[in-house]
Write a structure and sequence with these properties.
CATH superfamily of the largest domain: FAD/NAD(P)-binding domain
CATH class of the largest domain: Alpha Beta
Largest sheet: 8 strands, mixed
CATH architecture of the largest domain: 3-Layer(bba) Sandwich
Radius of gyration: 24 Å
GO molecular function, one term: monooxygenase activity
Shape: globular
InterPro entries: FAD-bd, FAD/NAD-bd_sf, RIFMO-like
Number of strands: 26
Cofactor: FAD
Keywords: FAD, Flavoprotein, Monooxygenase, Oxidoreductase
CATH topology of the largest domain: FAD/NAD(P)-binding domain
Number of helices: 14
Strand content: 15-25%
Organism: Actinomadura yumaensis
């Protein structure tokens, strides 16, 4: 985008071009609404992989935009490569136990989901989303600039930008979305503050290249190798099927990690391998939730609204859910078929999801490799054999929910939301209609009425939608009860919850 274009107002300005900000722009574009994403980084930071688990639910949302297949084709680890997590004394040491069917990676073709999960580093997802934004006629990405302040009023938001060489600009937007992370200018602007705490234990990430290491691993393919080495507990995993790996030293301070990252790698691997250190990243886990998600025309999404420990792989996935929820609602208001009151449901629906996710990740974090590492595991064969059963049992008690979390990933509901009728609110149950033909592929971009369209209520919904200007598609499932599906694939109403179709539809788009 040229600097001259900054003089043009936009319906939505998104502060921050990480995955959540880009996803917000793509959801708006999905509904034909223009947006501008402002991101300081010119390029994606490839050596900081951060999130590596894209959940089945996030992949379903990416499918709506036509991006799920692109991400799978470009992911270095095919989804069929492994769905296992191995616990061992070291990467090259003795196996203690393992989990299978992790992170929904085993769900390809299962009626439960339209898409299985995918192991893929966050930078690759971000690059795919950048390219989709740049190719969209409705979205634009401005790199090298950052949002420095906002002023909002009844008619819109004035956003201050800083760019190369000390350049400053202001741009007018109808709405602003803060996907600008933990140091969010947007959060400060709306007077929101984090509630929660940071974990006191340090962690140290290393990305390294180690030719020939994969051939030495005795445990077979796995998406995680947990190392229960009392001398250095942590995790190791592959970033590709060549020579690039990541590891996390749990309990390792920044000073210790930076002093000897190769030593850390060797301790986790269990051998004095030769490795090239590509990047390091110290961090501590955070359990933080913003007390408010919005004020007026300004909204928070992703890390600016919530941060949770990475154990279970829920952080960035929760942010994508924010982007879709907020994006379709902003589009409905801007496209004129919903009142501004619809936007009040964003915090009501998404904040409880983040709260539950933080609690689940904190439970996963309560027992990490240091707590599971028994000194006898590093002893002779007899000592290892004596310790292994109890350690394996402890691992399964503590970590099963971390690897098998579909109730959280697929099961959250918006029941009780001000725009949901009766007991509805959950994700529309998925089914395959034929090979590769998902029920979700037949949903419209607005609302969709699914079920037996010969039911009298079907005609009433069609009439109410026409009178209210609400986009409504239909999909006939003979013999099935009717359900009204929102643009985000969640149910706004199901037959049996009563209510007049006109009232159901008005409530679903935010009318009192």
């Amino acid at each position: 985008m040229l600097s001259a274009d900054l003089a043009d107002p936009v319906p939505v300005l998104v502060a921050g071009g990480g995955p959540v900000g880009l996803a917000t722009a793509l959801e708006l574009a999905h509904h034909g609404v223009r947006s501008l994403v402002v991101e300081p980084r010119e390029e994606v930071s490839w050596l900081r992989p951060r999130a590596k688990t894209t959940s089945a639910r996030t992949m379903e949302l990416f499918r709506r935009w036509g991006l799920a297949r692109v991400i799978r084709e470009r992911a270095a680890l095919p989804v069929a490569w492994s769905d296992e997590a191995v616990f061992a004394t070291t990467l090259l040491g003795r196996e203690i136990t393992r989990f299978d069917r992790c992170f929904g990676l085993d769900l390809a073709g299962d009626d439960l989901v339209a898409e299985p999960g995918q192991q893929v580093p966050q930078p690759l997802v971000e690059q795919v989303l950048r390219e989709a934004v740049e190719a969209s006629p409705h979205a634009a990405l401005l790199t090298g600039w950052r949002v420095t302040g906002m002023a909002d009023g009844a008619e819109g938001v004035t956003v201050a930008l800083a760019g190369p060489g000390g350049a400053v600009r202001e741009i007018r937007a109808g709405y602003a979305v803060g996907g600008d992370g933990s140091r969010s200018v947007t959060r400060a602007h709306i007077g929101s503050r984090y509630e929660g705490a940071n974990d006191s234990r340090p962690n140290f990430n290393v990305v390294f290249r180690a030719p020939g290491l994969a051939e030495r691993v005795p445990h077979g393919p796995a998406v995680h190798y947990w190392v229960l080495n009392p001398a250095q507990p942590g995790l190791v995993g592959r970033l590709d099927l060549a020579d690039t790996w990541w590891c996390i030293g749990q309990g390792v301070t920044q000073a210790a990690g930076e002093a000897d990252p190769l030593g850390l790698v060797r301790n986790l691997v269990g051998a004095d391998i030769e490795a090239e250190i590509l990047a390091t990243d110290p961090w501590t886990a955070r359990m933080l939730l913003a007390d408010r998600y919005a004020r007026g025309r300004v909204f928070l999404a992703g890390d600016s609204a919530h941060q949770n420990p990475p154990w279970g792989g829920h952080g960035f996935n929760t942010g994508i859910g924010d982007a879709v929820n907020l994006g379709w609602k902003l589009a409905a208001v801007l496209n004129g078929w919903a009142p501004a009151a619809l936007l009040d449901s964003y915090q009501a629906e998404r904040r409880p999801v983040a709260e539950a996710t933080i609690a689940e990740a904190a439970r996963n974090m309560a027992t990490l490799a240091p707590e599971l590492a028994d000194p006898r595991l590093a002893g002779d064969d007899a000592a290892f054999a004596a310790a292994r059963p109890a350690v394996a049992a402890a691992v399964h008690r503590a970590k099963d929910g971390e690897f098998h979390s579909l109730d959280l990933v697929l099961g959250h509901t918006y029941a009780g939301s001000p725009i949901v009728t009766g007991t509805a609110g959950e994700r529309l149950p998925h089914r395959w209609l034929g090979p590769g033909d998902s029920l979700y592929d037949h949903l419209g971009r607005g609302f969709t009425l699914v079920g037996d369209l010969t039911a009298p209520a079907a005609a009433e919904f069609a009439k109410a939608a026409d009178e209210g200007g609400v986009p409504l598609d239909t999909f006939d499932i003979p013999g099935s009860k009717l359900a009204l599906v929102r643009p985000d694939q969640h149910l706004a109403w199901r037959d049996g919850d009563g209510a007049v179709p006109r009232d159901v539809l008005r409530k679903a788009v935010g009318h009192p």
